[in-house]
Amino acid sequence: MLSGFKEFIMKGNVLDLAVAVIMGAAFGAVVDALVKNVLMPAISVLVGQPNFDNFLAVGPIKFGVLLTAIVNFILIAASIYFVIIVPMNHMIARRNRKLGIKDEEAGEKVDPQIALLTEIRDSLKARQD
Questions:
Q1: Most CB contacts within 10 A, which of 25, 71, 81, 114?
Q2: Backbone CA torsion sign across 96, 97, 99, 102
Q3: Which of 115, 120, 96 is nearest to 106 (CA)?
């Protein structure tokens, strides 16, 4: 039983997942700092408030808190897209050009077993016709 547990823990995908969770938490702190200390203060210069928490407050119902959360979400999504995704896509495209990989080759590779089964199916169809 313990050897099975050891084998499970030592699998690459478990270790990769653990590293991804740790890196995600660390990167989350960076994105959070960017939004709270750079982007939201820039918005507060335009709007005049550091957040929208008191905006549209009707008694105990505070729609502004929801608005602040939505703005934070949009800022986080935009930050990740423009700081991580766009540069990474450019780096991948540049690497693919250097290696001579065309766009259709860079996509999902077809599993060889699926390709073989597709060929067999097409061959059987051709024989029937």
A1: 71
A2: positive
A3: 96
Separation CA 51–CA 83 (nearest Å): 23
Q: How far apart are CA 122 and CA 104, in angstroms?
A: 22
DSSP codes of every residue in 51-112: -STTTTEETTEEHHHHHHHHHHHHHHHHHHIIIIIHHHHHHHHHHHHHHT--HHHHSPPPPH
Which residues lie below 8 Å from residue 80, measured CB to CB, with a gap of 6+? 31
Task: Please tell me the distance from the alpha carbon of residue 41 to that of residue 56, in angstroms, as a whole number.
Answer: 20
Q: Please state, in angstroms and rounded to a whole number, the distance separating the CA atoms of residues 11 and 17.
A: 10
116 and 68 Cβ atoms separated by less than 8 Å: no
Please tell me whether the overall predicted TM-score, pTM, comes out greater than 0.85 for this model.
no
What count of other Cβ atoms lies within 10 Å of the Cβ of residue 35? 20
